[in-house]
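Batch manifest, entry 17 of 40.
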Amino acid sequence: MVRGTLVFETRLPNAQRPRILLQFDRGGAWPFHLSLQAIPGGGLILIVNQGGSVLHQVLNVADTGRIDTLRLSYAWDAPARAGWLALEHDEREYAHLIEVEAPSPLRIGDLRMLFRDGPHRFTAPELVYFALSSEIEPVGPMPSLHPETPIATPEGYRPLSQIRRGDTVIVASGEAVPVLHRVSRTMPAFGSTRPLTIRRPYFGLRQDIQAAPAQRLLLSGTEVEYLFGRESVLVPARHLTGGHSVLPARAGLTATYAQLLLPTNEAMVTAGALAESLFIGRLHRKPLHLAASVLAGIERSRLPDHGRPSHHVLRAFDARILAEARVA
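Output type: structure tokens
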């Protein structure tokens, strides 16, 4: 396979010694070895050894604070003699990107065996999933709403999939703002990208909607003002699970998400609720990250500068406090 992407999602084990998360070995005239290890202090080691061509990379994550789940992507494009490693987690705005020069193509037979159980492969319980794509998969800001999610426009609700650049949508302020771009992506329906069902009538919804765990809702009310001293806050859907309002959705092996890019990261009226549009921060100032993103190919001058999110974003602990206050 001359180009593609391997994605690994894992929890970091609480261990004092190096811990193997995934190890695969295949012998023969052209032996192949792949391993992913966790090291004490917060780090990962990825080793890919194919017939003497070795990729050995240490990725430190100790500076990212408390971590529940990490996602590591290895993308290679042998004809272009380019590739990269990207380390992501949900509390970090940008991926940790490392360029890989002149990556070797990987044999399809080795990759097929990697996904078969047997004595040639070991996986630790902390490994949530690993996946393979024949394309160079983007990293960074990702779409997070089901493509058929109803979005309010001046003409009424329309499915997200039917909204185009130049159309207008209704945002939290009641204004109509222009759509700069619509993006979509198909991802593994596991772990941090497993679909969630956000149920009506919670959060003002008129119908159930599906979203990725990272999708943020704009919440307001007396509890928000009392607890946080703000009119509104953004809360990731993953922090709202555990009750009746947000539940795991039924899904296959993959899930497709879409999202709209707006000028100032406004929250859109979404089936009655307020859902954040695509937040890209200052992606236009990071050429490498832009080239690896779902917005690759768009001129930097045509991208907005979002700076920080439009509202304060709650972490898991504060989101639980808010949820308890709303139930009480």
